[in-house]
Amino acid sequence: MLTTELTALLHLASPALPIGAFSYSQGLEAAIEHGFIVDADSTREWIANGLANVLARAELPFIAHQMQRWQAHDEAALRSANDDYLASRESSELRRETEQMGWSLAQLCASLEWGDAAHRATLAAMKPIAQPTAFAFAAHAHDAAPDAALAAYAFSWVENQTAAALKAVPLGQLAGQRIIVALRGPIGEAVARALATSADEITTFAPQLGILSARHESQYSRLFRS
Q: Burial letters for 186-202: b for 16+ Cβ neighbours within 10 Å, e otherwise?
């Protein structure tokens, strides 16, 4: 991997990226509320299951295919896939999350003039835009390899889930680092599985997550927006 590509992906995976990821738990806070997460072991299991059964089957392969569409600059296919992804969100919170983060990342791409003018015009015209579609644009704009881009996205997701758990379970910093280290291997497995997934095989079927996310909308006490 070229140093410039690595630096770009570290930037995209950074928690300092101003797209608001820190304000979302993607159902983790509701899982804590309902007793599925109580300690470091159950936190690791929850995040590992999300990585293997949600990201690897849905978001990661979706990003890989969107990167191909950005490469071909197939505007119709990009918009159709983006609309399908938005429609697949199980709750209003998850829908608002991907739209807000997608909009923020698209604005950042435009402000920093990533990619060429024609691709940026297509990005700007896609409203609302899902966050994985915007991430695929940013990865393509930096000539990132699909496997590296997916690994960066997955690591960022794992890190954000762990950070949410540190605040809400709560856990200590060392426990959080152990979770991240334990999931290095599963991240690679998730990326490999995603790259072998055809567009027709992508699925967002995760009923427990959908139910917990819907319940989070009326949860009395909460730190996060999802």
A: bbeebbebbeebeeeeb
